[in-house]
Amino acid sequence: MKICAIICEYNPFHNGHAYLIAQAKERSDADAVLCLMSGNFVQRGEASILEKHIRARHAIFGGADAVIELPTCFATSSAEIFAKGAIKILSSIPEVRVLCFGTESAEKEELLSAAKLLTNEPKEVSEKIQDLLSKGVSYAKARAQAWSGLLPIDLLSSPNNILAIEYTKAIFSGNSSIDILPVKRIGDGYLNEKSKSEYPSATAIRKAIQQGISIHGIPEFVSSDLPTAIENVLQTVEAYALLNKSASEIENTPDCSEGLENALKNAVRQGERNIAEKLTSARYTTSRLRRILLQNALNITKSDIRDYLNADLYLKVLAINKNREDLLSSLGNAASPLLIRAHDEDKLCCEAKRCLKTDIFAEQLYSLLYPSEKKTNTIFIEK
User: Fold this and answer.
1) Are 330 and 99 in contact (CB under 8 A)?
2) pLDDT under 50: residue ranges of the chain
3) N or C end of the chain: smaller count of CB under 10 Å?
4) What is the pLDDT of residues 244-270, one digit of tens each?
């Protein structure tokens, strides 16, 4: 069996996501589409607006054949670690032959060429990045400026292209046999917050919910599940975690460096509520600060990331089309254990067990903060 994979968050699922799944089916010549999806917390350092099993069900209704969970430690990390962790999981499944993802403009050969260049960063580029960092420029902007004119096309200025190149780099550096299938995005850009397009960004949809205005570009099976408001109750837990830990403990979170732990401690001691927004600067983006706050609250450390990237983990099934139960056999051929039922966790040990423990803690925390009557743990979805 040939499987085409898609790495996703679906926060929430919208028409653009359905389009990508349709393109993956049409252009990959695969027998099935497998989604590797973030759980209840996402890469921007926020709680997802819908519980993971609900979002997985939406993916099945939207055309996917199965959905497995990207471990929390990877899902809440930087784009590079997010991509490395995702490719590690997918590479453990022999039948996954191709990865389909959206880009703003990049073609396959351009991505492959750029990945090789970025994997072997020249000394002069590294020095320029460090020089820009010393002047207060954020890492993402410093890297984009340092590489300007050296890559086949501008790949480092938009979130989708950045993820596309990180996926390709992870495949290249990990010697994975997975092929890539980039698909040009249609509709609004990733960060477009105001839209009435039939292909809006997930950002625009979340913004519309916050403002209580009408939402366009989402299937009916999604709109009926969406919340009427988005509450940021997570920040209270994050503030408590900052108060409860020493600066040296906070420094151990994956995205924390350069003394940010002290700034975070000072902010919470002063009673600041919107800590990430308060500390945002040209050097430190809001998303990075939110990731640090979330990683700290979930007790994810730098050593955890290193350990999990070098360990055999697991495939945790969130949803599967009831008519495609044959996929379970393919997933069962993976190098990592397949988790479907609670007692399957007994198969795990060492790093895998610790990694799953974080997933379970994240799920319990989310359920406490965002209780929902719509939550379901049903894995087999009948369309």
Assistant:
1) no
2) none
3) C
4) 999 999 999 999 998 999 999 999 999
- Classify each residue of 137-169 as buried b or exposed e, where b means 16 or more C-beta atoms within 10 Å of its C-beta: bbbbbbbbbbbeeebeeebbebbbbbbbbbbbb
* Whole-prediction pTM: 0.94
Whether 300 contacts 241, CB under 8 Å:
no
Question: Residue 83: how many CB atoms within 10 A of its CB?
Answer: 24
Q: What is the pLDDT of residues 269-278, one digit of tens each?
A: 999 989 999 9
Rg (CA), the chain: 20
Q: Hey, where are the domains in the chain?
A: 3-104+158-227+308-381, 234-303
**What φ, ψ does residue 272 adopt, rounded to 5°?**
-65, 130
**303 Cβ neighbours under 8 A, 6+ residues apart:** 252
Q: Which amino acid is at 318?
A: L
The fold for domain 3-104+158-227+308-381 equals: Rossmann fold (3.40.50)
Closest by Cα among 68, 63, 60 to 90: 68
Residue 271: closest CA among 234, 235, 233, 295: 235
Q: What is the C-alpha to C-alpha distance for residues 347 and 356, in angstroms, rounded to an integer?
A: 12
- What's the number of CA atoms in the CB half-sphere (13 Å) around residue 234? 27
Tokens, residue 219: 């299937």
Query: What single-letter DSSP state applies at residue 41?
Result: B
Rounded CA-CA distance 286/365 in Å is 22
As a dihedral over the C-alpha atoms of residue 307, residue 171, residue 58, residue 198, rounded to 10 degrees, the angle is 130
Q: How many CB atoms lie within 10 A of CB 187?
A: 17
Instruction: Give dist(CA 329, CA 30) in Å, integer.
Output: 16
Structure tokens at 234: 């997570």
41: left (phi over 0), alpha (psi -120 to 50) or beta: beta
Torsion angles phi and psi, residue 139, rounded to 5: -60, -45
- Beta-bridge mates of residue 32: 3
